[in-house]
Design goal:
By secondary structure, the chain is an alpha/beta fold. The protein is 32% helix and 21% strand.
Length: 426
């Protein structure tokens, strides 16, 4: 039986579940999102690709569609946190404000003189307004003229192109990626593209200083203020599926260097016993594991077969006889079968049946990027007709949201959510 089962009722009765994310489909209790806003107003045809968007957005429509998504979750009694609100709260804390601005407004990022002028102005700024600028971006000619001294002149004299002092972070819309909760802890990502790396500083400050996170949790990977070499990891490649197993994609944006470090942290704490790492093609269409594979219920998965069928799979397990304390083995066979065997659950893959070209289009339009609100209940974009119909035929309740604007950065419901508390399912 698929969809809502006895496990669903069991989970819904769990009111005192400890903090953390213990599955991909257990009842979602608390999640973080980031509404479209100022950063998306800074997208233009000339800069959107550098900022990892395929096109500019109709921002008011994107906001309405995102609000619809958030309300849908709240109707299911999910505690939905807005990243901007959390950031404003921590910016009220002098130590937290200094932690962010010391790293964001300095000689290296702004230049001598400009940094001092801008820092004095920002130190006095209301927290909500400052948070908007840190996410949404700041152009030099938006700063009051009396803030700057002479050092701003190289940017302004005989120029009609003002300096982008703080680059916008439009990809904060996809809260899945800049951090990821794995069982009883969190990893703070090292983003592959420079356009996203500033996001992690803000998430680090939120987890470190916000009163909501004043409970014990592990940090599996901490990347701020460190030379991370070739360590890259993004949350869309990470899935704690239960039974001490974590799925991780290694494609365009995540590397074995990161996967092995997270694995060691998890193994040392006894929080996981196996990492199943999937080697994927390094291409934008399949940038993360969750663009080609998501879990919908205890036994139904949503897959883009051409990529998933071609993935090579490796398992990392703790082993003190091996160098570094980790043993890596190659898992032969189809990825879905490897995961089924690890869970001791027969997983049924569901895919688009719209033909070769139709399936490729549905994958590009985030048809495989669904997020589960509880076992057998997922949120999906409305334009992926074949996948959504096939999920329903498999017993999955599919809640559709508009896709025309939110999907322009290549991310669906899974990408737009960072689960913070989620129940186990097995």
């Amino acid at each position: 039986m698929r969809g809502r089962t006895a496990a669903t009722e069991k989970e819904e009765s769990m009111s005192d579940q400890k903090h953390g994310v213990y599955s991909e489909v257990g009842t979602l209790r608390r999640v973080m999102v980031c509404r479209p806003g100022r950063s998306h107003e800074h997208l233009t045809p000339s800069n959107c690709h550098d900022l990892l968007f395929d096109d500019v957005l109709d921002v008011p429509k994107a906001q309405r569609d995102h609000d619809f998504f958030v309300e849908l979750m709240r109707e299911r009694d999910i505690d939905v946190l807005e990243l901007r609100d959390l950031l404003a709260d921590v910016l009220d804390i002098p130590e937290a404000r200094a932690f962010i601005l010391d790293r964001r407004v300095n000689h290296a990022t702004m230049g001598v003189g400009v940094a001092e002028d801008l820092r004095d102005w920002m130190d006095e700024m209301p927290s909500a307004e400052l948070g908007e600028l840190l996410i949404g971006g700041l152009v030099s000619d938006e700063v009051p003229k009396d803030v700057f001294g002479s050092c701003i002149s190289p940017y302004h004299v005989n120029s009609d192109d003002p300096e982008m002092l703080i680059a916008p972070l439009p990809n904060t819309l996809f809260t899945r990626d800049n951090s990821a909760w794995i069982y009883d802890g969190v990893e703070l990502s090292r983003m592959f593209w420079g356009a996203r790396r500033r996001e992690v500083l803000l998430l680090t400050a939120i987890y470190r200083y916000h009163p909501m996170f004043k409970y014990d949790y592990n940090v599996w990977l901490d990347t701020v203020d460190k030379d991370m070499g070739h360590t890259f990891i993004e949350g869309g490649d990470i899935m704690p599926i239960g039974k001490g197993i974590v799925l991780v994609g290694m494609g365009e944006r995540s590397t074995f260097q990161a996967v092995s470090q997270i694995a060691k942290s998890l193994f040392d704490a006894g929080s996981a016993e196996r990492i199943i790492a999937a080697r994927m093609p390094k291409e934008r269409a399949a940038m993360h594991l969750d663009t080609v594979f998501t879990v919908c219920s205890e036994d139904v998965v949503n897959v883009y077969e051409p990529v998933v069928r071609a993935m090579d799979t490796f398992s990392l397990r703790p082993d003190e006889t091996e160098r570094g304390g980790i043993k890596v083995t190659y898992d032969e066979g189809y990825f879905v079968d490897v995961v089924s065997k690890a869970l001791d659950v027969k997983l049924t893959p569901v895919m688009s049946t719209a033909g070769r070209y139709g399936a490729e289009c549905e994958q590009w339009n985030d048809g495989n990027n669904v997020v589960a609100l509880s076992p057998g209940v997922v949120v999906a974009y409305d334009r992926n007709y074949s996948i959504n119909a096939n999920l329903r035929a498999a017993g999955i309740e599919v809640l559709e949201i508009p896709s025309s604007e939110l999907g322009r950065g290549r991310g669906g419901g899974h990408c737009m959510t960072c689960p913070i508390d989620r129940d186990p399912v097995y």
